[in-house]
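for the writeup, i need someone to sanity check this before i put it in the appendix. the sequnce is what the collaborator sent (i think, or maybe the updated version? ugh). structure was predicted straight from it, no edits. if anything looks off just tell me and ill rerun, i have time this weekend
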Amino acid sequence: MSQHIGIVGCSAEGAALCYRTICVEGARLLGPHAHPEISMHTFSLAEYMKCIYGGDWQGVGELMLSSANKLAKIGADFLICPDNTIHQALSYVEARLPLRWLHIAEVVAAKAAGRDFRRLGLVGTRWLVESEIYPEKLTARGLAYVRPNTAERAEINRIIMDELVYGVFKPEAVAYHQRVIARMKDEGCDAVVLGCTEIPLIMNDSNSALPTLDSTRLLAQAALRRAVQG
């Protein structure tokens, strides 16, 4: 019997990609049409954004904790959250979590170290790239990182919040990310963290100047391994 995965959702596109990945790759491990039991709880993204725009990270954490408690009550064995940005609030409620939480940045950092990368570019929302979510996990493994510059942070954030979370994927958005990633390569990066769970919907190894670390799919794969192997 595999374990029951609880997904604390935030934005629809990222949560859906994570869910689909678990289901598709689960069939490869467990047989046709098979995957672990999965439950998801999501508050409206507007509730999260109200807190984030107001700088209320405690409030973000309380939403995450509420979802976690609901998932625990219906039988989830452990939790994941396919949203990088709101992990900034995890420390506010971590001591009260009812179940183990697989940290998305720790999963990505482990994969980066396992692939012998040394210097990573980081793209995501401005809240994510200005936070210590990834720096803490990367430096703990001896990995260096490069953040986008101020103008790049603003434009990538606009693309994410005005386009990607609504399922709008434009060639111009791809081209912009390609330019940012190419600059990071010029600065000595040997891979790039797609640190927004929607960015993998437009960027991947085939159109990036650097190997990509897809935070959404890496988290889904880690959850699947834990569910199957215990």
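The chain has two domains: 5-103+218-229, 105-214. Residues 61 and 158 are 23 Å apart (CA to CA).
thx in advance!!
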